[in-house]
Amino acid sequence: MTVHIEIQNLNYSYPDGRRALSGINLRIEKGEKVALIGSNGAGKSTLLLHLNGILRGSGRVSIDGVMIEDSSIREIRKKVGLIFQDPNDQLFCPTAEEDVAFGPMHFSLPQNELGELVISSLEEVGMKEVANRPSHHLSLGERRRVSIAAVLAMKLEILALDEPASALDPKRKRWLIDFLKSNTRTTLLATHDLMMAFELCDRAIILRDGEITFDGTTKEIASNADLLSRNDLEIPRMPTGD
Q1: What is the CB neighbour count within 10 angstroms for residue 151?
Q2: Distances (CA, A) of 47 to 66, 142, 209
Q3: Is 56 helix (H, G, I), strand (E, B) or coil?
Q4: Is residue 207 within 8 Å of residue 36, measured between CB atoms?
Q5: Beta-carbon contacts of residue 181 (< 8 Å; ≥ 6 apart)
Q6: Where in 94-234 does DSSP place strands (E)?
Q7: Structure letter (DSSP) for residue 109
Q8: Are 207 and 227 in contact (CB under 8 A)?
Q9: Are residues 55 and 35 in contact, defined by beta-carbon separation less than 8 angstroms?
């Protein structure tokens, strides 16, 4: 298998001095779906933001063997797409269509290919009909799908999603899970939703206080109550009938 993402001894502290990541070492192979699990403040979002150079700590982060640095950042961002927890952090153009077109235009996609790409990307997430509507007039679930379309339009090889199901109702959460199941790209899913992680990912990494405390299969997590307890996690109980 091809190593798609490699992280070596990554450390990062925020300007206030708070240590967010400490000695992270990680290898992810092409096509893997990996859940990054941890409670709030564990370092999940901070780790994702290092994958395309939005944040830069000490250590080495490389994509397909190319280290993230000033000279390679444009190449890296053609491969790694981040989907933020809040779609409003990604959508800022007058219409959904323009939001989806923004990335390909930035990377100089030929104009004659742009229109078809934008529509096909919106169609892939079931949002073709909102192309001309302002993104800020859409529901949260609709904005989430437009933000995913914006990443798909970039033809990226790696998807990094930060709590993508937060605030989604069950129907839209099910759509998201089914969509990600059908996706063949290398996928990192940062979440504290263990049921979603178990359904989508064979591999899971638990972060606690910026350190990796577990790297193994999701099956191991599901059957290890002590591991969950040590990392402030629990599997939601399914409702029972009267």
Answers
A1: 23
A2: 17, 26, 12
A3: coil
A4: yes
A5: 199, 200
A6: 158-162, 186-191, 203-208, 211-217
A7: -
A8: no
A9: no
Condensed to tens digits (0 to 9), the pLDDT of residues 92-127 reads 899 999 999 998 887 767 777 788 899 999 998 888
pLDDT tens for 192-205 read 888 899 999 999 99
User: Residue 108: is it exposed, middle or buried by C-beta count within 10 angstroms (0-12/13-18/19+)?
Assistant: exposed
Domain map (residue ranges) of the chain = 1-79+159-164+183-233, 84-156
Burial class (CB in 10 A: 0-12, 13-18, 19+), 43: buried
Distance CA 46, CA 43 (A): 5
- Residue recorded with tokens 């033809």: 155
Could you tell me the end-to-end alpha-carbon distance of the chain, in angstroms, rounded to an integer? 49
Residue where the block lists tokens 């930035």 = 106
| Helix intervals (H) in 14-138 | 44-49, 73-77, 96-106, 111-124
Q: Which superfamily does CATH assign the domain made up of 1-79+159-164+183-233 to?
A: P-loop containing nucleotide triphosphate hydrolases (3.40.50.300)
Distances in whole angstroms, Cα of residue 58 to Cα of each of 5, 51, 213: 16, 13, 20
Q: How many CA atoms lie within 13 A of 46 on its CB side?
A: 23
Q: 0.90 exceeded by the pTM? A: no
The CA R_g of the chain, rounded to the nearest whole Å, is: 18
| Mean of pLDDT over the chain | 89
- Is a pLDDT exceeding 80 seen at residue 236? no
